[in-house]
Amino acid sequence: MKFERLIISLSITALSLLPFLEAVAEVIEVRLSVDGLSCPFCVYGLEKKLKNINGVKDLQIDLKSGSAVITLEEGLVPDTSTFENAVKKAGFTLGGMKITAVGSIVFKENRAFLKLRNSDQEYLLLVVGTVTSSDRLQEFIEKGTVVVITGSIQEEANETTGLTAEKVKEFATNSQWIM
Question: Which residues of 160-171 are buried (b: 16+ CB within 10 A; e: fewer)?
Fold first, then answer.
């Protein structure tokens, strides 16, 4: 009887996590550095263009730092060129782009990629310095660990989008960022 209750309890817990697990395939946040913001009217013009992007949930623009932080709807995997085009259409220059994305690290063609689940989107993972050890990355790959990576977007010559990892952590744990 206790065993049956335990099975039922575990099943209910697992079922309650399904929607959470399905939402793991995404870019959570986009941070833009925008050159040329000089007044509140500039902010308003940029805000109009960025809010027109499909899936923008929240947008914060800081005139002083020239930055925009965009929170996206769950499950969204945007094309990074969409943000660059919106900034250009608003009359500004994109100085840089950082994303926070959730996915798994996969190894192919002797290179590591961040593969976003439930999507074909992959980012070539560029690890600089001591963000994390190669042993730790290998562990993530072998276990198929879902990770959260924050890093700068780099457009590669062969039309591959690179992600220079600045922070890496396991998803859905209380672990600290691995530096």
Answer: ebbbbbbbbbbe
Residue that the structure tokens 């072998």 belong to: 142
| Weakest-pLDDT range from 9-23, 41-55, 134-148 | 9-23
Minimum mean pLDDT range among 5-9, 43-47, 113-117, 125-129 = 5-9
User: Which structure tokens are listed for 68?
Assistant: 């925009």
Q: Cα separation of 36 and 84, whole Å?
A: 14
Q: What is the pTM of this model?
A: 0.75
Q: Are strands 122-127 and 161-170 parallel, antiparallel or unpaired?
A: parallel
In order of their start, the domains of the chain are 34-92 (3.30.70.100), 100-170 (2.40.50.140)
- One-letter identity of residue 162: G
